[in-house]
Amino acid sequence: MTVTVYVPRDSAALSMGANEVVEAIVQHATKSGQQVAIVRNGSRGMLWLEPFVEVVTPNGRIGYGPVGIADVPSLFEKGFLHGGDHPLRQGFVADLPWSKKQTRLTFARVGVTDPLSLADYEANGGLAGLRKALAMAPAAIVEEVVQSGLRGRGGAGFPAGIKWRTVLQTAASQKYVACNADEGDSGTFSDRMVMEGDPFLLLEGMVIAGLATGATEGYVYLRSEYPDAQVVFATAIERARAAGWIGADVLGSGRRFDVHLRIGAGAYICGEETAMLESLEGKRGMVRPKPPLPAIAGLWGKPTVINNVMTLASVPWILAHGGAAYAAHGVGRSKGTLPFQLAGNVTHGGLVEVPFGITLKELLYDFGGGTASGRPIRAVQVGGPLGAYLPPSRFDTPLDYEAFAAAGGLVGHGGVVVFDDTVDMRKQARYAMEFCAIESCGKCTPCRIGSTRGVEVIDRIAAGEKRDANVALLRDLCATLTHGSLCAMGGLTPMPVMSALQHWPEDFAR
Question: How far apart are CA 66 and CA 89, in angstroms?
Answer without folding.
Answer: 9
